[in-house]
Amino acid sequence: MHKENLALKMSRNFPLNALRVFEAAARHGSFTRAGDELGMTQTAVSYQIKLLEETLGETLFLRQPRQVTLSEAGERLAPKVAEGLARLAEAVSDLRGASEQKLHIHSTPTFALQWLSRTIGDFQLKHPNIAVRLSTSQDVIDFAKEEADVAIRWGMGDWPGLACHRVMRMDFAPMLSPKLAESIGGVKAPADLLKLPIISARDIWWRTWFSAAGIDNPNLERFPPNELGTQTIDAQIAMAGQGVAILSPGHFRSEIAAGQLYQPFDLTCNDGRDYWLAYPENRRNIQKIRAFRDWILTALPQEV
After folding, report:
1. pTM for this one?
2. What CA dihedral angle connects 235, 183, 208 and 215, to 10 degrees?
């Protein structure tokens, strides 16, 4: 039989719908949750997986009581099926019209508020046919279980299976309002900061910075052990003149330029964790992801 005829026969007989079911089950690690997503019963999902296994002659899932896990063959197949389905979805989206493209960005709250919210309009002007959905949380999302296309993450950029591009260095230094600095006759030495309220004093960045500044025992325990969640909140408190915050200067250039925040010392520190753009390696060729990657790396060239 000619190769062309064999390929045609396979395309007619191969259970393509079972691939879609397999991808969902592999992503969720559950036949039940895959069925919920696809509007199918658990029995129907199990049937489709069995049909695919019989067609391929391979066991794709190891069935255990109340749990299924991918077999070695399933582990090899899953990323390739996910990439193939993503490319098909993108092709269909292109045919329907670029106006239907949607890019779901997951970001840390501070990066979203201090940078994305101020610049995402430029991305929209350059790519008017890509609608943006932005969601925020401190959690490190699992792309296999979440709908996000890309994520802005804080860390080392070493997440398995993800393409990662550093977009902003997370240097940090103390900042306060100019008026608060004037209230003690100016901040002339690092020790002068300890005469003022320290915001989020348990933040490990404080000890790192004071140690680099030559103060090994700043006695930070005497300050309230507040944990306010984001740099943005700490910065708001600092701008209100209620204390000194440890912040990333890259996030607050506008506030520094406007005189709302004051960085009294040039000394900045970095603990090795920066902001990264991350997305599944097998989706690197998706047009909307490429567009966002190219835009953000151009918009922040000095941070890379």
Report:
1. 0.61
2. 180
